[in-house]
Design goal:
Elements lengths: L2 H9 L3 E7 L21 E2 L2 E2 H11 L4 E6 L3 H10 L7 E5 L8 H10 L3 E6 L2 E3 L1 H10 L5 E6 L15 E4 L2 E5 L10 E9 H5 L13 H10 L3 E5 L8 E3 L3 H13 L8 H21 L3 H20 L3 H28 L4 H30 L6 H31 L4 H13 L5 H10 L3 H29 L4
Parallel strand pairs: 1-4, 1-6, 4-5, 8-12
Antiparallel strand pairs: 2-3, 6-11, 7-13, 8-11, 9-10
Helix pairs in contact: 9-11, 10-11, 10-12, 11-12, 11-15, 12-13, 12-16, 13-16, 14-16
Amino acid sequence: MSESVIQRRAEIQGLATAILLPSASLFSGPIGLHVGDVGPLTSVVGIGLFQRAVLTLQRGGIRQLIVLVGPEEEQLKQALGNGPRVTIPVRWMPIREFPLDDPRTWESLAAEVRGFALVASVSSVFSRGLIEQLRHDVQDGEAIVVAQTVQGPSAGSTLRSVRLKVRSNRLTAFAPVHFDDSAPRAAELVVLPAGLMSAASQIPTQNGRVPIRQWLERAAVDGRVRVVATEEKRGSWYQDVRTPADAQMAEKKLFSSLKGESEGFVDRYFNRRLSRWFTRLFLLVGLSPNSITILATLVGLVSAAGFGMGTYAAGVFAALLFQLAAVIDCCDGEVARLTFTESPFGAWLDIAMDNIVHMAIFAGIAAGLYTTHVGQPHAWMMLALGAAAVLGNGLSFLLVEKAQKIKSVSGWRTPANAAWSDFMLKNIASRDFSVALLLFTLFGKLDWFLWFAAAGSLAFAGIMLWVIRPSAVSSPRP
């Protein structure tokens, strides 16, 4: 293979550079003014638009960031330094030295871009999934325009966005202002090949305007501009933030996007709906995700002590407390994802504390049932069932940790093992049993629950052992 072919493949291998414009719109509005009623420091769920954009790009796989910044440079630097750690290099280029309407600015940027650059104004909130999709969808020599999803006649500032004429997922032209309301709207986020930016001097530009629209119009004539539509259900969503109402809509989308890896029916349709209220409170008071994990653990342990008292009233109160602990337990992950403070230790702490609470609950129920049956011939059976449930839960915890390690380090031996593991973790290893526990408590059948807990935890441990054993045996030693 020739050296030129190798170099060509290296240049189109991916999208790794992003260019942010905090003081300008890509398609409309003069340079140097904010895009609307809000600015790059406007807070959405406790984090400014600029900082949230940088961290989302970092999480989405961007490895180099260039900021064409106006007079707010020092404020943006300070905001970026006060939040979660930014690990990618950030280069600051003042627009007074690198005017956005000067082709030489874009030619110099093209020289630093290998393949493609994502260009965005700081007037929106978007998902990590959208960035990952764009990185996956880049094709040699083609630009990408992101089309927003508009629902209903009152879609906020999206109605003021530039409309697109699209045919077979290709941009044919930018539409006039008064055009079909059902036409897709351009997001303030595009992907440009370096070659398009390096040829900026060959395309006429308007003074005081970012020239991206002219470039895309020229490329659209040749069919070299694809349109990628956002899709909230697939996690590739985008929300303009130009007004306070837009900021509220962005917060709703952020909360709607929250979902853990292993969620059951109750988590999805009950716990998550309540946890968002607690999450807003925890964000307001500044609790860290790990602090929320400890709080949920303490509530769960108090619940276990309530079960240990053995009375009906104490059991009902304990079951309600355990349901509250399950709701609060959703909040640590929500706060971590919203504030970009996820960590491997936090994920491990969450799982470990969950299992400690579960084992304490089983032990508390067993102790409470024993005290109410003491003196009867089979009272010892309650303690035996509690011990079996605790043992099964402990083994399950160790085996789940082993399964996650196999998945992340060495991989599963067969697709069947991987499918079984995903099924077990997503459909069985959940908090759904908290509602079942409440029902058994209300009907005075905690002994039945203990039978199910003992059998279920031991069966889960047995199945997980069967699933991971082939991969565990065949995986190489570290």
